[in-house]
TrEMBL record:
Start and end residues of each HTH merR-type domain: 1-67
GO MF, one example: DNA-binding transcription factor activity
Source organism per UniProt: Desulfuromonas acetoxidans (strain DSM 684 / 11070)
Descriptive protein name: Transcriptional regulator, MerR family
Keywords, sorted A to Z: DNA-binding
SMART domains listed in its UniProt record: HTH_MERR
A matching Pfam family: MerR_1
Length: 288
């Protein structure tokens, strides 16, 4: 049997919400132990998961609780089969869609070109994924499934790129401790569109190894992304160290939540928004 706190954690809601549902809609009906504390069964947990999933897809509690558990399941199944478009559809896609569903959605946007794919297809999808994660409807394994499909499509955009002598060359590097690569890959694809040849280093590397990589690749710039999981003070220290280690003519470009609004040393460019890539890339081309 589950306590109200355990039930709320499983559902990603507060204990107060469960008590409101009980008082307002008569559901769930708890059992009571000898001390009068609420206890809930595994079956009640599964039934309330249906409620939460429907709520995540835009249904109101009053409407949901007016249905039987069987009717809720039928409604959820029907909603999952709808086309994955709009905010509600994207939330359904990230919470319930198969790998094939995600691939089909991304392929539709990929056919429109890299920029449309990223700005109009991928970013809304990632926003829905983040929202699903926050409320507990997206598991770690599900996040990895979607990330893998996205990474495969981004790699396809870069695979056809061939360097020329006229192009500036930028290395896209993930430092040790950074777990997320999607932001870096999106940046590489957009820089590539603007005439910058992009080499994405597949392995995590120590900060001290970055200069060697830049020297071997003969790059004019190095780009790094620091997600919200990366400690802000460590990101700053790594950037300062890297600026000291690299030649002055190698530009450093950084982005990500961990460096938002950060005051950076000279020779480091902050890309606070992917829509700034055009301007930053144009400056690289001019310097080349």
């Amino acid at each position: 049997m589950l306590t109200v706190q355990q039930l709320s954690q499983e559902l990603g809601i507060t204990p107060d919400t469960i008590r409101v549902w009980e008082k307002r809609y008569g559901n769930p009906v708890p059992q009571r132990n000898r001390r009068g504390h609420r206890r809930y069964s595994q079956q009640q947990l599964e039934e309330l998961r249906l409620v939460r999933n429907l709520q995540m897809l835009g249904k109101k509690p009053k409407e949901i609780f007016s249905l039987t558990p069987e009717q809720r399941f039928e409604l959820l199944t029907a909603m999952q089969k709808r086309s994955f478009s709009g905010e509600e559809g994207l939330l359904s896609l990230v919470c319930f869609g198969s790998a094939a569903d995600v691939e089909a959605y991304l392929s539709k946007w990929a056919a429109k070109g890299c920029a449309d794919f990223i700005f109009h297809g991928l970013l809304p999808l990632l926003s829905a994924l983040e929202n699903g994660w926050i409320v507990g409807n997206v598991t770690i394994s599900r996040e990895h499934l979607i990330s893998d499909v996205v990474m495969n499509q981004l790699k396809l955009f870069l695979d056809d790129a061939k360097p020329t002598r006229e192009q500036p060359h930028c290395a896209f590097v993930t430092l040790n401790g950074e777990r997320h690569r999607l932001g870096l890959m999106m940046g590489a694809c957009l820089f590539n569109l603007q005439g910058v040849y992009c080499s994405v280093v597949s392995d995590d590397v120590p900060t001290a190894e970055v200069p060697r990589i830049c020297q071997e690749l003969k790059t004019q710039a190095v780009a790094l992304s620091f997600s919200g999981n990366y400690q802000r003070h460590k990101a700053f220290d790594d950037i300062v160290a890297l600026r000291t280690l690299l030649p002055d003519d190698v530009q450093i470009i950084v982005g990500g939540k961990a460096v938002e609004d950060m005051s950076l040393p000279p020779g480091v460019t902050l890309c606070g928004d992917l829509r700034q890539v055009d301007t930053i890339a144009a400056n690289l081309v001019l310097k080349k």
